[in-house]
Design goal:
Helix content is 42%, strand content 28%. The protein is of the alpha+beta class. Strands 1, 2, 3, 4 and 5 form a 5-stranded antiparallel beta sheet that branches. The chain is globular and about 45 Å long.
Length: 139
Amino acid sequence: MPRVPVALVAGALLLAGCATENMRSKQTVLDETLRSYAATIRWGDIEQAQAFIEPRLRAERPPSALDLARYQQVRITGYDEGQAQPVGETEVRQTVRIDLVNINTQSARSVLDQQVWRYDEEAKRWWLVSGLPDISRRD
């Protein structure tokens, strides 16, 4: 008779461990994604940064030639990320201050990028759904 409760407890612990492992791996993937995206933006590699955008959104609203030209005119000098805040099981929001210097005028400014990231269960990855930073704004 004692085997049944032990088996139930062991099963429950195993399921809890799987759930914890699943959540931890989702968090690990988020941390890696945010770190990789930050590095990509810091290096000013906008072409590579587009790969972080959710594919449907990227196809529907690709950056315009004007947007891409704006990115060519600046150098990223700072990327100060706030804490990623969960909005649910599959969405996080993060505010990032991006410092820029116009390469022609040498004028410095900052923009706030309100990032929204969603987890794709099928692809097992986080996608940026808020798009690339709007560097035409002044914050």
